[in-house]
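Predict the holo structure. Ligand: adenosine monophosphate.
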Amino acid sequence: MKQICIYCGSQPGRLPDYRKAARELGRLLARRGIGLVYGGASIGIMGTIADEVLAHGGRVTGVIPQVLIEKEVAHPGLSELRVVKSMHDRKATMAELADGFIALPGGLGTLEELFEMLTWAVLGIHRKPCALLNTAGYYDLLIAFLQHARDEQLVKPSHHQLLLFDQDPHRLLARMIDQAPVAEPRLLTPDES
Ligand code: AMP
């Protein structure tokens, strides 16, 4: 894995644990020589992880739409900042650059980005691992909901297991490296469409 895309909050969140986990993962990426790809902001948990990777000599690529440069305060010190036209371009660029995706605690944007990559994995558009870093139980309810969706037979077990989750960044990263690529590309068959 050469580069990992991290989705996380543009807010710091209530608990210091969220930023602590971002720093831990940032150091881990830098030490392993894995580049960070993220949304390019200097604020919130996004800014924290970028700062930590840079402080430890790692490489950071930010991808930000023109309209968000001011609102999310584009990070001035990145290895590379790609300014793109739209949110769609941002997600597509990040997806292309990265070899895997991890969501740290975050809000609606984080969820939207992670689930798009997960559904692309289901459709066989990519074979890159998707993961949740469940810091301080932040994602417990989401994990329980996904289990419920599986029990209700609205999410297939093989699709459910495409999402890795762990509270420990080291273990999560090791599992992602073990698992890539996650599954055979799997386009819809006629009886499923
Ligand atoms: P949030 O988790 O809501 O704090 O947002 C985290 C990041 O996701 C921020 O950089 C948002 O700009 C970004 N974001 C929110 N919605 C979208 C979207 N539809 N496509 C791409 N990025 C988004």
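The pocket of adenosine monophosphate is lined by residues 9-11, 39, 41, 68, 72, 87, 90-91, 106-110, 112-113 (CB under 6 Å). The mean pLDDT is 94.
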